[in-house]
Amino acid sequence: MKKKQYYCDYCGKECEHTENIMVPEMVPVNAVNKQGIVLIKGGHVLKHVQKDVCVSCQEKINFLLKLMPRVDINHVNPICTKIIL
Ligand SMILES: [Zn+2]
């Protein structure tokens, strides 16, 4: 039996399946018809999503999480981001 291959959700490299890694992510909530066509856009909600992440990207995420307390993000406009150093 052939082993299923997994790819990093961030860089696309082949990696191990990391079923225990859950990442908070804003996901769209839409009303769709039977064909999956969006009828009404309902905005976004914060959900925890399972990701397959290679070791290199895990190290990058770890680095970014250490910066997180120093970053002030305007939720209304994500482009307006201020880093407090
Ligand atoms: Zn990666």
Category by helix and strand content? alpha+beta
Number of domains: 1
Strand portion:
35-45%
Overall pLDDT: 86
The SSE string, one letter per element, is EEEEHEE
The number of strands is 6
Unreliable stretches (pLDDT < 50, length at least 5) are none
Q: List the ions, cofactors and other small molecules found in this model.
A: zinc ion
Helix content: 10-25%
Radius of gyration: 17 Å
- What's the arrangement of strands in the largest beta sheet? 1-2
- SS summary, helix count: 1
Shape: flat
Described by strand count, sense and barrel closure, the largest sheet is:
2 strands, antiparallel
Distance between the termini: 52 Å
Give an overview of the whole structure.
The chain is an alpha+beta fold. The protein has one helix and six strands; from the N terminus they run ββββαββ. The protein has one helix at 55-67; strands spanning 6-7, 14-15, 22-32, 38-50, 71-73, 81-83. Strands 1-2 form a two-stranded antiparallel ribbon. The longest helix has 13 residues, at 55-67. The chain binds zinc ion. The site of zinc ion (ZN) has 7 residues, from helix 1.
